[in-house]
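Q: I have 131 residues here and want to know how they pack in 3D. Can you give me a structure?
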Amino acid sequence: MLPLHLSARKTRYFAKDLDKAQRAYKFIGRGSFHSSTRAYAQAVAPLANSGAYIATDVVMISAEGARRGRLEPDYVEIARAISAGAHFITDIPADRDRSYNLGERQVAEFLIQHGYREIYPGYWSSNERTG
């Protein structure tokens, strides 16, 4: 479980992010200076953006929404975890589909392009591992 409760930034969406963190053991996310994604990465360091993943890892991904100065999802780091065959926790479709959550939709598309599927809302596994 990621110690996300240590984050200094808690918006009205913190509860959904805390739920994701309670099911994950590593974190991928980069964000601009005032973003929740950046605050979360700082709160869970050194479990954030570690560069090293194994097939049994469950990795929470956080991505910035449609804000000025936003950073794109860290596709290089996500690809490292994909190469290891890790599982991922993302926003569920209801949250991901809100107009603001551009980064979350980008992450979902990237996972799909790399052979992952959402086996239940917000939980992704590679097609090779799920049959």
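Q: Anything worth noting?
A: Residues 102-113 form the longest helix (12 residues). DSSP finds six helices and five strands in the chain.
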